[in-house]
Amino acid sequence: MSRPHPLAVAALVLGFAFLYGPILLLVAASFNASQLVTVWGGFSTRWYARLAENGPLVAATLTTLKVALASASLATVLGTLAALALDRRGGFPGRALFSGLLVAPMVMPEVIIGLSLLLLFVALGIDRGLLTIVAAHATFTLCFVAVVVQARLRGLDRTLLEAAADLGASPATVFRTVTLPLILPAVAAGFLLAFTLSMDDLVIASFVSGPGATTLPMRLYSQVRLGVTPEINAISTLLIATVALGVLVASLLTARRS
Questions:
Q1: In angstroms, rounded to a whole number, what is the distance separating the alpha carbons of residues 66 and 208?
Q2: CB distance 231 to 220 below 8 Å
Q3: What does the alpha-carbon distance between residue 247 and residue 11 come to, in Å, rounded to a whole number?
Q4: N or C: which terminus of the chain has fewer CB atoms within 10 Å of its end residue's CB?
Q5: First-last CA distance in the chain
Q6: 32 DSSP β-pair partners
């Protein structure tokens, strides 16, 4: 095996440093005993302990978890159904259009999605709040679930489904006893991706949220404009850890073949 060129290694190190250096700096600052971000006062975990005493941050965290769980569950159901529809043999009229519209939110600017959903809720006379955030997050995350589940369906051994049908199982029984267990890792991975995307969203939630429905990214953004505090570094580190864990587990489930 040939050794990598030193310039390639240097470019790789610089790339990772550019991507993850600021995140590592934020994590290190969350363990700073000093209240001043620019002055290192020693290692301490007291800012994590003080998070429980910060009422607005705790309320925003609970709101974010509620929204993420509800929207990810809804997106998982709808995304899985969409993937099953696209995987049907023989297709259906408008399949290509449906497939294109399904993945469009993945490349559409979040500002556009948020603004369009805001106009929709206003036109329908729906008051903005927790439910509108859940609906908005489910709308833009279900495409990720559909893509992950569809990829799993493409690699599915069709002979297993045909064997179950030949033995007299109804389509519902085939789905419940054969298809669903086989695609369950992809469904779980899609749920985790939708969950992490919902927790990380700021732009869309800012458009569709209402009084009493402030998510954690919105709370952090409003507080950062007034200055960075050690507690913000601590809660941001916890948010990064949660999102990273979700993405890692989703990646492992997606890579699982059997």
A1: 16
A2: no
A3: 25
A4: N
A5: 31
A6: 43
Asked whether 63 and 213 are in contact (CB, 8 A), the reply is yes
Question: In the numeric block, which tokens belong to residue 89?
Answer: 């043999």
Question: How far apart (Å, rounded) are the C-alpha atoms in residues 214 and 222?
Answer: 10
Lookup result for tokens 């507080």? 223
Q: How far is CA 70 from CA 63, 83, 131, 181, in A?
A: 11, 20, 9, 22
Which phi and psi angles does 227 have, rounded to 5°? 135, 150
Residuewise pLDDT in 10s, the chain (258 residues)? 567 778 888 888 898 888 888 888 888 888 888 877 777 888 888 888 888 788 888 888 889 999 999 999 999 999 999 998 888 766 777 888 888 888 888 888 889 999 999 999 999 998 888 999 999 999 989 999 999 999 888 888 888 888 888 888 888 888 888 888 888 888 988 998 899 899 889 899 999 988 778 888 888 888 887 777 788 888 888 888 887 887 788 777 767 654
Integer Cα distance of 12 and 193 in angstroms: 27
Burial class of residue 132 in the structure, from the number of CB atoms within 10 Å of its CB (0-12 exposed, 13-18 middle, 19+ buried)? buried
The SS3 of residue 40 is coil
From CA 230, how far away is CA 75, in angstroms rounded?
35
What pLDDT digit, counting tens, does each position of 148-201 carry? 999 888 888 888 888 888 888 888 888 888 888 888 888 988 998 899 899 889
- Token code pair at residue 223: 């507080």
> Where would I find the beta strands (DSSP E) of 89-242?
none
DSSP 179: I
